[in-house]
Amino acid sequence: MRNNKMIILGCALLLAIGTTAVARAEISADEIAKLGASLTPLGAEMGANAEGTIPAWEGGITSPPAAWEPGTHYVDPFADDAVLFTITADNVDEYADKLTVGQKALFDTYPDTYKMNVYPTRRSASYPQRIYDKTKEIAATARLVENGYGVEGAINGIPFPIPKVGVEAIWNHLLRYRAESASRDIGQAAPTRGGKFTLVQFHDEFFMLYSMEGKTEADLNNTILFFKQRVMAPARLAGGILLVRESMNQVKEHRQAWLYNPGQRRVRRAPNVAYDNPGTAADAMRTSDQFDMYNGAVDRYDWELVGKKEIYVPYNAYKLQDPAVTNKDILKPLHINQDLTRYELHRVWVVDSNLKEGARHIYKRRTFYLDEDSWQIVAVDNYDNRDQLWRVSEGHVINYYDVPTIWTTLEVHTDLQAGRYLAIGLKENNPPYNFNIERTLEDYTPAALRRAGKR
Questions:
Q1: Tens of pLDDT along 55-102?
Q2: By 3-state DSSP, what share of the chain in percent is helix, strand and coil, each rounded to 5?
Q3: What phi and psi, each to the nearest 5 degrees, are found at residue 291?
Q4: Hey, what long-range contacts does 132-135 have (CB within 8 A, 24 or more apart)?
Q5: DSSP assignment of 356-387
Q6: What residue ranges in 282-419 does DSSP mark as E strands?
Q7: What is the mean pLDDT of residues 43-49?
Q8: Bridge partner list, 377
Q9: What is the DSSP letter of 318?
Q10: Hey, CA dihedral for 426, 428, 434, 439, is it positive or negative?
């Protein structure tokens, strides 16, 4: 009997080891050699598609437009591009195979007003050479740990440029390069069905340890980044400050968060700033983990890598950060002003996530669409616990070519059931992103939060 138990235990251990090996999905030297050859340095297909509607990647934007001056809003490098065609409710069926489920639902929900202007595809994504070099280096060492809830053997670059499982693709988004540090002043609004809104103003700071040149994995102390957000307006919300420390091994150490309450003049731990708890001042229109399209722990979902698909996605959306464009120009009843958006045909990785048995989240299922050139999530379909499509998210991205990096300039989360939406990233009367802030680790401690709140 004892021998039988030992055999059963041994089989269980072998099974566990086998499962771990599958989860780690190490790539071969031959595959790594493709990076920068048949694949881009971050793992996208280098060549054009068969129809020529997606061009070959030729390095993306390698220098800012001549008309751009540092410290100003970003000049549109593609301002002379004309609209190729417009998708409306009348012709949506012709393009259905290149639309997300959420996009098709938007046409069904708002047939009289929703449209998509499709422009020539510009593979504008570009990054510093050191990010390309580090991606190729760590492709041989990066591995999932703790059932995929953490990553080891990675620093600076994209850890899984040739993903084998869904959670690897999501980690690529979480660890993608967005500069070493950044600050931004942005607006957030959740218009009523009639279009009225109250603007919430944020000052955000990002201190991205994982991406910092010269850092080693040991230097991180299990930290990906620090994020600080101060509410600037309206007056009834102003003064509150959120501080988040994001961990790389989420089992070893969960996210840490603190809130400064100006009424109490106290700093408190904020464990609820995660998962499906409401986003800051978002009128319950997005969850905490929808910020930056997706952030935080990956442990509540099973992740499936569906594959790659050609989709019309928001891209090179420079009009949405143009200082001549007002918030009222963008924020319209039911959805944002689609005349100001730009859609292009890009290859995206599709990742399906399903809520684990026994786990809790208001979204039972989510489908993520990740740009192959940047690993930035550009669209998400979010389903409720009845398996009904509930919210549709889009990340309108640009190349911040002074860095350079691809990142959102506006995130839009549309609630199909409520007939409302949330927009975050509004730029009216706000300066452009600042990628040259000087900070230290001491600026991202509870003590520093307390001092900042009392000033």
A1: 999 999 999 999 999 999 999 999 999 999 999 999 999 999 999 999
A2: 20, 30, 50
A3: -60, 135
A4: 132/36, 132/41, 132/42, 132/157, 133/157, 135/35, 135/41, 135/42, 135/43, 135/161
A5: PTT---S-SEEEEEEETTT--EEEEEEE-TTS
A6: 301-314, 343-355, 365-371, 377-383, 389-400, 405-415
A7: 98
A8: 370
A9: G
A10: negative
**Is the overall model pTM greater than 0.90, yes or no?**
yes
pLDDT digits (tens, 9 = 90+) for 7-36: 334 444 333 433 333 344 579 999 999 999
Contact 168, 193 (CB under 8 A): no
Query: Which residue in 170, 56, 74 sits closest to 122, CA to CA?
Result: 56
Partners of residue 355 on adjacent β-strands: 301
DSSP line for 216-260: -HHHHTTEEEEEEEEEEESTTTTT-EEEEEEESBTTTS--EEEEE
In the DSSP assignment, the letter for residue 32 is: H
Contact in structure between 214 and 191 (CB atoms under 8 Å): no
Q: Which of 311, 405, 375, 335 is nearest to 118 (CA)?
A: 311
Read off φ and ψ for residue 219, nearest 5 degrees.
-65, -25
By the 8 A CB rule, do 344 and 157 touch?
Answer: no
For residues 222 and 212, give the distance between their C-alpha atoms in angstroms, rounded to a whole number.
14
pLDDT digits (tens, 9 = 90+) for 340-350: 999 999 999 99
DSSP secondary-structure letter at 212? -
CA 180 to each of CA 131, 154, 162, 183: distance values in angstroms, whole numbers, following the listed order: 11, 16, 24, 11
Max CA separation in the chain (angstroms):
80
Q: How far apart are alpha carbons 336 and 440 in whole angstroms?
A: 38
Question: Which residue's structure tokens are 């409302």?
Answer: 420
* pLDDT at residue 409 in the model: 98
- A 10 A CB-CB count for 20 gives 15
Pick from 379, 382, 377: which is nearest to 354 by CA? 382
